[in-house]
């Protein structure tokens, strides 16, 4: 995989059973982890790893079509999952124009642009797991 994807580079991914498949193009937008109680329950883990991608570059390619959507916060947010295997795949939030992709659903999650630049909800993170440094907002001393 190219460490610095161009706007036209295509990535693929999907759920555990393979019925929901997708392709996204372009560089990842705001890759981060989230340790909010919502994501912890949703993912069954201390953190979830998200990256945004332009909706214009998204296509659902598997036999299952688009994932099933659950409105986690009515009118504000919904999460996409496979109705067969339960894999958490995507997120749509009313205040964000991009689709959030669960990075672990990508076939190749090793791109340099997928390295988390921040961690959301640090205050509810488990104490035994090191937090992701905020590299997006850090400043370099001159």
Describe this protein with a few key phrases.
single chain; 142 residues; mainly beta; seven-stranded mixed β-sheet
Overall description:
The mean pLDDT is 90. 31% of the residues are buried. The protein has one helix at residues 37-43; strands at residues 10-14, 21-25, 29-34, 48-53, 59-60, 68-73, 77-81, 88-93, 99-102, 119-120. Strand 1 and strand 2 form a beta hairpin. The chain has 142 residues and is mainly β. The protein is built from one helix and ten strands. The chain starts with 9 loop residues before the first strand and ends in a 22-residue tail after the last strand.
- Main sheet specs: 7 strands, mixed
Provide the residue-averaged pLDDT.
90
Radius of gyration over C-alpha positions, nearest whole angstrom: 15 Å
Uncertain residue ranges: none
Strands of the largest sheet, in order across it?
6-7-8-9-4-3-10
Number of strands: 10
Q: Helices and strands: which structural class?
A: mainly beta
**What overall form do the CA principal axes indicate?**
globular
Element pattern in H and E: EEEHEEEEEEE
How much strand?
Answer: 25-35%
N-to-C CA distance: 34 Å
User: Helix tally?
Assistant: 1
Which range best describes the helical content: under 10%, 10-25%, 25-40%, 40-55%, 55-70% or over 70%? under 10%
